[in-house]
Design a protein that fits this description.
heterodimer, A: alpha+beta, Rossmann fold, seven-stranded antiparallel β-sheet, 22 helices, 19 strands, B: alpha/beta, ABC transporter transmembrane region fold, 3 domains, six-stranded mixed β-sheet, 20 helices, 10 strands
């Protein structure tokens, strides 16, 4: 556990274009969905931008208009212009639906409504004068008729305006509904695409790890590999769902806001933008500080976890040595150190967010100052100002969210880098380019080791580095070979090599006369059944542990084999028989039972070669007899390589190989070796006396 | 409230600071609500034509002053509330660790390291989040919500406010109904994820079997089933979440629509001013955040409470072994041991591990314990170290009942070399001096020489300052054993216990270490557990344990003459020795 933590702290990049490019390659199959998701998101953005715009129209044109466009009939009666005519006709266009109508403007003169016939609502009211007493108004060098509205006309206008506000609200509602569905669609498609990407990356990574040779698993703790497949992949998902696409959105929203703002009023837009240097500067300072402080926090929490795990594991020693106080003080230092960094992190964030807020307020103040001045002069309408206030808010929101995205981006980049490092790892034991295949028809099961030298080290130098030093032996089809010798003499290594879990440095291993390096790995291993000392059971049920996912093997076959290897005896006694659940590692079964189960597992595949690593663990007498009997049965008619611990097994072997320190010291039949009075003789007497004890 | 009983002592000390933060938060929230009022006044003045340069300056001045206060205040409450929560995290972690240090070995046998680690990391950070971000959001949401509504009523219009708020209860409804569903689907996602992790874990662990039986394709298929399930569950959550998330915004916008159609009419009729109307729209917009926050914070606080309960459980589990009715004023102990009619079984198990043990070891004597794996040797030592609780009057050390001797006094008497050689990932010097307050380089050299590890330490890049563990040197089992021996010796123990501590050392080194030990530890009482007879044949007293009882006892010669278990073991080992030399 602690090892993983220490290993993980090395890679700390916030952004790497190469990694990003490679990640996007995985996104390619989902490009269409991502594209739809982005389109929907743009729709949402456009709709979001439309909302303040419609609000602006409602306020400026109907709720509180300074000038309102109307049409005046020849008889002087008013026609009120509807919202849609105006939306499609433009703000200043003269309504000319009927040629006998004149354009007109209802002007709000300090609460009194005045009709100015012939004048369309003007962009700027500079130089506008109203002479109500004379019934005239002039703008520039034009003079128009002006009169106050009658109470009836005012009532009609208000009713009309309320109806228009209602119509606008309804169109706003339809925008909202559209936006709701578009948001839903966007979220759904985005998550779908992102999960699909992660699904296939997971599959690829899992398959890649699975294909690696055993030497890879010797080097990499399982916990670390599992983290790559699980948590690191989830980080990638986080990035796709929370950063990549929403960054596009933020970017477009920012851009869109700016365009709309500039479209409405360029000057005010530039004014609001004048705070940008401050924003950019503080964002870049923040980025740098946040990265450092986040790294600190991560490293320190990892150290806390590693220390905790170590201290919990070593609690016995701590207590026996009366070190509780000292260890607590040491832990407190680390804990305090983390607290300090963690508070520093709060500090950085506590400065950044308010700074952005301040920039926002500054922009707002500038808007009020310049916008207010313009409004007094009548250059800017109130609605424009109100809209700008909203846009300014909209503009600052993604900037404020920056800190969170930055966090996600950083951790997903680190995860991606680790995943790619793993994917780039080469398989050490490669399949030949044109592999030979052992067909079941022609398979005989002859094994030969010819001067095999092997070391677990990548680059062995001295003879001592080798685990096997020039091992040669030969097994004829159907023979049973027993390997005996002390722990570490190389017996287990021989087994691993025959399966080609590792490649040897010197010499040759052949099966049926073919070098196993020329064989298809799959074809080779299909012919070899294996029973390991430490029986690995998968969680699931008994049946599943015998057939190992291979659905082609029928339940009947499983039972038949189990009876044959004496496993049926205990299996049928289990409450659910062959369907009895097996918990992780088969903790509920005894060592002997697990051994019998693994015999069944090996035999159900009917291998031509059987490798048998006998269990040394304490097994009760009854089970011991069953195992013995099973072994005698299963070695019939197939070449068997046994790492032997039992007297009877050894005696039945066709050939006994005595190993010591990676070399074969004696080889022969039981009686021959006994009469030699060598190492085997000593071993045998030792075992024999043990058998009597 | 009962769940807060343990953290109360921390909160008592920090409550004022914490409350200050909360008050600050509320003050800032209140201040933030002033800005829309200013904009409203601005708009009104503009419409009324009474907007003048000086008025604009005044309003801008207010805006900026508020902005500065808000910025300072935000910094302030973050630094008070969040910092207090982080201090709570620090304090709790320390408390939990301190408590774990008091727990007996039995506790650790029943609580996996991984689970304890999860409590120390996940649970404690969930508590921190609840006390930090959770409380902030809760206060913020409630206060902002109430304030906003109050201002809407006072400043604008009661009827308009009530009508505009009509859709809001819908949000509360959806949060409660859909929130439950979201949690449920979230749980499903977590389960699917942990399934996937389990399969990867198991199949990578069993890779040898998978490869041997050429089941890679099937294993991938199996993994992909879990992968697919994880995918489906995530999509299910995304679907719901994709619905819930815009829903809150949608409902809030409904309020805006109502405000516009009804409030717009009020403006047209002249009931309220346009400025009030604009401010009102802003306030309605402001309400969406508290609504969303409440749903989120509900979850977070709930999670914090569950974690708090779990931490309370740890902190309130009493240690099984502690000083109770201990002898006061006990200054030293004579290193002599007397065991009378000791029988023992591990807590919550039935199998008897030791049965009717009677034994006496005098000061300066050496006792050797031999026997098969599982015969009770290590248990016997564990009891002498009082790692498990025994009945009164069964074990006596220095003439006192072991249960009456303060733990610290008992353990400072003993130098112990365990079977599993646990060293800390620190320097070699730290490890050698582990049982002492301070160790000089000379002392360290002295003890490591006795333990026959000095030369090898000197070969390491930094000598005694070499770091052990994954960041430094990985020692072999034999090296670790010898450092453990030096560690026990450096404590200058009066009672030395070696629990099969020379198993990974070759016979020659072993002999040499033993000779050295004998010289330096003339007055020390020692207990040796060993497999190799050669290790212990000179002991004053040898006992052979078999199935938890003393099967044979005596010295080497006497036991050989008995021709029982001991003699048998001895003969086998002679043979083995011969083999290993072959």
């Amino acid at each position: 556990m602690s090892e993983t933590i220490h290993q993980e702290q090395d890679i700390q990049k916030s952004f790497d274009a190469g990694i990003m490019k490679r990640l996007l390659k995985y996104a390619k199959p989902q490009a269409f969905l991502l594209f739809i998701s982005i389109i929907l998101m743009l729709m949402v953005t456009a709709l979001d931008l439309g909302i303040p715009y419609i609000t602006k129209i409602a306020i400026d044109d109907y709720i509180s208009p300074r000038q309102q466009a109307v049409a005046v009939d020849t008889d002087g009666s008013l026609t009120y212009v509807g919202i849609f005519d105006r939306l499609f006709g433009g703000f200043n266009d003269t309504p000319t639906a009927q040629s006998n109508q004149l354009p007109g403007t209802v002007y709000d003169y300090q609460g009194d409504l005045v009709l100015i016939s012939g004048m369309a609502p003007a962009d700027s009211l500079e130089g506008f004068t109203l002479m109500l007493d004379e019934g005239k108004a002039s703008l520039g060098n034009q003079t128009y008729d002006a009169r106050g509205l009658t109470p009836e006309e005012i009532k009609a206008l208000k009713t009309h305006n309320k109806a228009q506000v209602g119509a606008l609200t309804v169109s706003l509602l339809s925008l909202l509904i559209a936006s709701f569905f578009a948001t839903f669609g966007h979220t759904y498609f985005l998550n779908y695409a992102s999960q699909k990407i992660v699904y296939s990356m997971r599959e690829e990574l899992y398959n890649h790890i699975q294909r690696m040779s055993l030497s890879f698993f010797d080097k990499n703790p399982v916990g670390r590999l599992v983290t790559r497949v699980s948590n690191d992949m989830d980080n990638i998902n986080e990035m796709f769902t929370n950063v990549v696409v929403s960054s596009v959105k933020d970017f477009l929203l920012l851009g869109g806001t700016v365009v709309v703002m500039a479209f409405i009023d360029l000057k005010l837009t530039l004014i609001i933008f004048s705070t940008m240097p401050l924003v950019l500067l503080s964002a870049s300072i923040f980025r740098r500080k946040a990265r450092k402080v986040q790294r600190d926090v991560k490293v320190k929490i990892a150290r806390i976890n590693a220390t905790l795990a170590e201290n919990i594991n070593g609690m016995k020693i701590i207590q026996i040595f009366n070190k509780q106080k000292g260890i607590y003080d040491d832990f407190d230092v680390i804990n305090k150190d983390f607290l300090d960094s963690s508070i520093e992190e709060t500090h950085v964030y506590a400065i950044f967010r308010p700074t952005m807020n301040l920039a926002y307020s500054l922009s707002l103040a500038l808007l009020l100052w310049f916008g207010g001045g313009d409004a007094i002069k009548g250059i800017v309408e109130l609605g424009v100002l109100v809209a700008f206030i909203t846009y300014t808010q909209q503009f600052f929101r993604p900037i404020m969210d920056l800190s969170e995205k930055f966090n996600i981006l950083q951790s997903s980049m680190a995860s991606a880098e680790r995943i790619f490092l793993l994917l780039d790892e080469q398989v050490a034991v490669k399949n030949p380019e044109q592999p030979k295949v052992l067909t079941p028809e022609n398979f005989r099961g002859e094994i030969a080791f010819e001067d095999v030298w092997f070391s677990y080290m990548a680059d062995p130098k001295t003879t001592d580095d080798y685990v096997l030093k020039g091992v040669s032996f030969h097994a004829k089809p159907g023979e049973a070979i027993a390997l005996v010798g002390a722990t570490g003499s190389g017996k287990t290594t021989i087994i691993s090599l025959l399966n080609r879990f590792y490649d040897i440095q010197k010499g040759r291993i052949t099966v049926d006369g073919i070098d196993i390096r020329e064989l298809d790995k799959r074809s080779l291993r299909e012919h070899i059944g294996i029973v390991l000392q430490d029986v690995f059971l998968f969680s699931g049920d008994i049946k599943g542990n015998i057939r190992l996912y291979n659905e082609a093997i029928s339940d009947e076959k499983i039972k038949e084999i189990s009876r044959y290897v004496n496993a049926d005896h205990f299996i049928s006694k289990l409450p659910a028989g062959y369907d009895e659940p097996v918990v992780e590692r088969g903790a509920t079964l005894s060592a002997g039972q697990r051994q019998l189960l693994s015999f069944a597992r090996a035999l159900v595949f009917n291998p031509g070669i059987l490798i048998l690593d006998e269990a040394t663990s304490n097994i009760d007498t009854e089970t011991e007899l069953l195992i013995q009997d099973a072994i005698n049965k299963i070695i019939q008619n197939r070449t068997t390589l046994i790492v032997a611990h039992r007297l009877s097994t050894i005696q039945h072997a066709d050939k006994i190989i005595v190993m010591s320190k990676g070399e074969i010291v004696e080889m022969g039949r039981h009686q021959e070796l006994l009469s030699n009075q060598g190492m085997y003789y000593d071993l045998y007497t030792l075992q024999y006396s043990e058998g009597n004890a | 409230m009962g769940d807060f009983r343990y953290v109360a002592s921390f909160m008592k000390k920090h409550i004022w600071w914490y409350l200050f933060g909360i008050l600050l938060l509320m003050a800032i929230d209140g201040l933030q609500l002033v800005t829309p009022l200013i904009i409203g006044e601005f708009t009104d003045a503009l419409m009324a034509g009474s907007l003048t340069g000086p008025l604009i300056i005044k309003l801008i001045f207010y805006t900026l002053v508020i902005a500065v206060f808000v910025a300072a205040g935000r910094y302030g409450w973050r630094m008070t509330i969040v910092t207090t929560a982080k201090k709570l995290e620090y304090w709790l972690r320390g408390e939990v660790f301190k408590h774990l240090e008091k727990m007996s070995l039995n506790y650790f046998n029943h609580h996996k390291t991984g689970d304890l680690m999860a409590h120390c990391t996940n649970d404690i950070s969930a508590i921190r989040n609840a006390f930090g971000g959770g409380v902030i959001m809760l206060v913020d949401a409630i206060f902002m919500g109430i304030m906003t509504i109050a201002i809407m009523i006072v400043k604008v219009d009661l009827n308009l406010t009530l009508i505009a708020l009509i859709p809001m209860p819908l949000i509360a409804f959806f949060i409660i109904v859909l929130g439950k569903k979201v949690r449920q689907r979230f749980q499903e996602v977590q389960e699917a994820f942990s399934d996937l992790t389990d399969v990867a874990q198991e199949n990578f662990s069993g890779i040898r079997i998978i490869k041997s039986f050429v089941q890679e394709a099937a294993s991938l298929k199996h993994f992909n089933e879990k992968n697919q399930n994880n995918f489906v569950k995530n999509i299910k959550l995304a679907k719901l979440f994709g619905f819930v998330h815009p829903l809150v915004g949608f409902i809030t916008m409904l309020s805006t629509l109502i405000a516009m159609i009804y409030g717009g009419g009020l403006v047209i009729d002249g009931t309220i001013s346009i400025g009030e109307f604009v401010a009102f729209l802003t306030y309605v917009g402001l309400l969406s955040w508290p609504m969303m926050a409440l749903g989120f914070v509900y979850n977070q606080l709930q999670r914090g409470q569950v974690s708090l309960k779990r931490i309370n459980t740890i902190l309130e589990t009493p240690p099984e072994i502690m000083d109770l009715n201990t002898l006061e004023g006990l200054l030293g102990l004579t290193p002599e041991i007397e065991i009378r009619n000791l029988s023992f079984h591990y807590p919550n198990t039935e199998a008897v591990v030791l049965k009717d043990i009677n034994l006496r070891v005098n000061k300066g004597e050496t006792l050797a314990v031999v026997g098969k794996t599982g015969s009770g040797k290590t248990t016997l030592v564990n009891l002498l170290l009082r790692l498990y609780q025994v009945e009164d009057e069964t074990i006596h050390v220095g003439g006192h009942d072991i249960n009456r001797i303060p733990l610290q006094t008992l353990r400072s008497l003993i130098g112990y070399v365990p079977q599993d050689n646990f060293l800390f990932s620190k320097t070699i010097k730290y490890n050698v001096g582990f049982g002492t307050d301070h160790i000089t380089e000379e002392e360290a050299a002295h003890y490591t020489k006795i333990a026959h590890i000095y030369d090898e330490i000197m070969d390491f890049p930094h000598g005694f300052d070499t770091e052990l563990g994954e960041r430094g040197v990985n020692m072999s089992g034999g090296q670790k054993q010898r450092v453990s021996i030096a560690r026990a010796l450096a404590k200058k123990p009066e009672l030395l216990i070696l629990d099969d501590s020379l198993s990974a050392v070759d016979t020659k080194t072993e002999e040499s270490i033993l000779t050295h030990l004998k010289e330096t530890l003339k007055d020390t009482t020692s207990i040796l557990i060993a497999h190799r007879i050669s290790t212990i044949k000179h002991a004053d007293q040898i006992i052979v344990l078999d199935g938890g009882t003393i099967a044979e006892r005596g010295n080497h010669e006497a036991l050989l003459a008995l021709d029982g278990l001991y003699a048998d073991m001895y003969r086998k080992q002679l043979l083995e020795e011969k083999l290993s030399e072959a």
